[in-house]
């Protein structure tokens, strides 16, 4: 019997004698905690995605090599990426017969797909720029975005199941060095966000620019459907942008540092992460926020992901320093 349980048992025995029973001690409330830490040999974590709280992936690494780990509901363990795959910047998956296909976007214009049998296919998009985001509706309809800052030109590319094609950037009202993330609700409702507050929208036939009233970088986006999408960004101060199906609105949150990752549950409540280990909750339909955690401070959290069941993870590392980096994951597991 542990030292912690013995006094409780003696107290219960006394109560049982006096009252004929004993109420069990309530279970402790779940809390945010550091779930994984990595040294310089592994690197930082930049993105997380998974089909369930017992199958969750995070990717990252260092400029010399990419890395991936998996959470099985109890612990994180390293997983194999294709041999020679560079720094992995984003991970996304799709349901498939017998499991899930994983897509990873990385540096040097490289992407990779892991089939349900565990085999990898590496794809070279024909550019030397980094790919920052990847998303799609099917293995035959994938979008990837990227570019360097400063850089020659942003990257917007489409995969049709057999080959990747570079797609021209539409006319813009400002300079654009890179697109950072892409996400959508269907093949005819796709959004990409990036440098200088640029937002692009694809309607199934063409890409056009949409305005949100900000010139700050927008780093990531997520939503519940075509009428509720949230993008976050900012550098010195956090920026939140919302789309209601008709137009974007944005607000700079002066009390927040820059935000990097966001995820929304099915009710529209947002979960975002950023600089100084920041973890916040954004109530549905608002620009308000509640600070939840900073246990990863002073590290930067770059990616956010969660599940309606309540599990949440934020991934990052000491990304404000020159590589090689160290990595960290904060997690909330009810």
TrEMBL record:
This is BNR repeat domain protein. It comes from the Bacteria. It comes from Enhygromyxa salina. SUPFAM superfamilies: Galactose oxidase, central domain.
């Amino acid at each position: 019997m542990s030292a912690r349980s013995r006094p409780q048992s003696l107290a219960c025995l006394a109560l049982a004698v006096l009252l004929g029973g004993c109420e069990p001690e309530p279970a402790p409330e779940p809390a945010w905690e550091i779930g994984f830490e990595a040294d310089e040999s592994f690197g930082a974590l930049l993105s997380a995605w998974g089909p369930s709280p017992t199958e969750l992936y995070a990717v990252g690494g260092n400029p010399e090599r990419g890395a991936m780990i998996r959470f099985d509901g109890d612990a994180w363990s390293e997983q194999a990426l294709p041999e020679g795959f560079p720094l992995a910047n984003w991970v996304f998956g799709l349901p498939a017969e017998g499991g899930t296909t994983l897509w990873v976007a990385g540096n040097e214009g490289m992407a990779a797909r892991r089939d349900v049998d565990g085999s990898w296919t590496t794809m070279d998009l024909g550019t030397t720029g980094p790919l920052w985001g990847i998303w799609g509706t099917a293995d035959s309809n994938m979008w990837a975005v990227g570019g360097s800052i400063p850089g020659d030109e942003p990257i917007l590319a489409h995969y049709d199941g057999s080959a990747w094609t570079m797609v021209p950037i539409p006319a813009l009202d400002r300079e654009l060095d890179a697109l950072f993330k892409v996400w959508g609700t269907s093949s005819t409702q796709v959004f990409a966000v990036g440098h200088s507050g640029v937002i692009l929208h694809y309607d199934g036939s063409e890409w056009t620019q949409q305005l949100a009233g900000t010139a700050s970088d927008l780093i990531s986006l997520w939503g519940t459907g075509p009428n509720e999408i949230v993008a976050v960004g900012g550098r010195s101060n956090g920026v939140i942008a919302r789309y209601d199906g008709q137009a974007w609105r944005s607000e700079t949150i002066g009390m927040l540092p820059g935000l990097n990752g966001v995820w929304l549950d099915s009710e529209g409540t947002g979960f975002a992460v950023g600089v100084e280990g920041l973890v916040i909750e954004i109530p549905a339909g608002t620009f308000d926020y509640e600070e939840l955690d900073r246990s990863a401070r002073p590290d930067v959290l770059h990616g956010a992901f969660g599940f309606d069941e309540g599990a949440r993870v934020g991934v990052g590392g000491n990304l404000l320093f020159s590589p090689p980096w160290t990595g960290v994951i904060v997690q909330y597991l009810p």
